[in-house]
Amino acid sequence: MTIERLNALGAADAERELRQCCGSRAWAARMAAARPFASADAMAVTANVIWAALDESDWREAFAAHPRIGGDARLKSGAPAEPEREHEPLGERWAAQEQSGAAAAAPPLLDRLAAKNREYEARFGYIFIVCATGKSADEMLSLLERRLTHDPRDEIRVAADEQRKITQLRLQKLIAEPDAR
Question: Domain ranges in the chain?
Answer without folding.
Answer: 66-149
